[in-house]
Design a protein that fits this description.
CATH topology of one domain: Lipocalin
Mean pLDDT: 89
Shape: flat
Helix content: under 10%
Number of strands: 39
Largest sheet: 4 strands, antiparallel
Low-confidence stretches: 1-28
Structural class: mainly beta
Strand content: over 45%
Distance between the termini: 42 Å
CATH class of one domain: Mainly Beta
């Protein structure tokens, strides 16, 4: 929680109240199989674990599907939430931004930032701030009060105050950790599993990227490529790579020789001696192109999906699933190491909401697929 024009004592008291309220929230539940789409009459539907609900008879202006809820703005710009079978209005004013994540949801109206946790909606800031929202974590930075704080597991914890400079460019948030360079001490720090840890001094600065249970970083002082991996520090390379990207406990990178590599399971191994045409990291998958082939690395194995590379607009990946259109515009799916044709219906567009696929066959004629079954 970041508040302006309040004493530190009042900030602390309000944080304490939020922590006590959050303590009585129900325990985390598993993510629900949710999806959302419009039909050919413009009506807005929500799919919830096999059931389809007509949420609005007029089109929603925007929507975001999370693991617990769906947020959307209706035709009058009111922000609404679908949660546990019901729809509630969160605000009659249009939000500046909103997002439904795997475990949380967050929205910002007029500088007031609110978090939704298990359907409970509460304010965490009344000041216009910069924040990064991830699956189960929201990190806040208040320029006016020079505070960095995080909401994680129903607790708000201040990481550091008295920060100076453009701190907004010096912190990154993963799904369950926050990495930042303290402008006050020049230390590189990582908040992980409830503990704020000093990793090493960054007297000359550095670069870093954060994922789930992993942070890949380069200290400008020694130029070594290192990993913060499940709480341990491991040197992956002596020299900085050409590029890198992180996911859930993995880091894909092109090293200084052009070799395509992956850091996973505590060690670095080669994916290919050939520099990829492109690559993306999505959770535990590395999707990449190599000499015109469409490939994915998953669970220490490389799978060739196609002998052509689909246009970026024709494929989508989330969690451990990739859905894409082949040359005939049939829909194919790769999930947890298995590949198959999802449908031979010609698709105009496809959408993936975790493990739920929505196939638009044209004119908003949609089919929903979950667990290989069509709804």
């Amino acid at each position: 929680m970041i508040l302006s024009h309040r004493s530190k004592k009042s900030v602390s008291l309000l944080w304490t109240k939020l922590i006590l309220v959050a303590f009585f929230f129900p325990a985390n539940l598993a993510a629900q199989p949710l999806a959302a789409y419009h039909d050919n009459q413009g009506r807005f539907f929500i799919f919830d674990n096999g059931k389809t609900i007509e949420a609005e008879y007029l089109p929603a202006k925007e929507f975001s599907v999370g693991g617990r809820c769906v947020l959307y703005t209706d035709s009058r710009n009111r922000l609404k939430m679908y949660f546990n079978g019901g729809i509630t209005t969160l605000s009659v004013n249009a939000p500046q931004a909103f997002a439904a994540l795997d475990y949380l949801a967050v929205y910002n109206i007029g500088g007031i930032v609110r978090i939704i946790d298990e359907g409970r909606d509460f304010t965490v800031s009344t000041n216009s701030i910069k924040y990064i929202a991830q699956d189960s974590m929201v990190t806040f930075y208040d320029e006016s009060r020079q505070l960095l704080a995080v909401y994680y597991k129903r607790r708000v914890q201040m990481l550091e105050d008295g920060l100076v400079g453009n701190m907004a460019n010096q912190f990154r948030s993963g799904d369950n950790l926050v990495a930042y360079i303290s402008s006050r001490t020049n230390d590189f720090k990582i908040f992980y599993q409830g503990e704020n840890r000093v990793i090493e001094p960054f007297p000359s600065g550095g670069t870093f990227k954060a994922g789930r249970d992993i942070v890949a970083y380069i200290n400008n002082a020694d130029q070594q490529f290192k990993m913060f991996y499940f709480g341990e520090i491991i040197q992956a390379e002596e020299f900085p790579p050409e590029s890198w990207a992180v996911g859930d406990g993995i880091c894909a990178y092109v090293d200084h020789t052009g070799t395509f590599r992956v850091f996973a399971n505590g060690e670095a191994t080669d994916i290919s001696s050939i520099k990829p045409d492109f690559y993306y990291v999505e959770n535990q998958m590395i999707i990449y192109g190599e000499r015109g082939y469409f490939n994915v690395w998953y669970n220490n194995k490389v799978y060739t999906l196609e002998t052509f590379i689909p246009p970026r607009k024709n494929w989508i990946a989330h969690l451990n699933t990739i859905v894409y259109l082949d040359l005939n515009r049939n829909v194919k799916i790769f999930s947890k190491g298995e590949q198959k044709v999802l449908t031979y219906d010609l698709a105009e567009s496809i959408f993936l909401f975790r493990d739920v696929v929505v196939v638009n066959k044209g004119m908003n004629n949609n089919n929903v697929y979950m667990g290989g079954k069509k709804y």
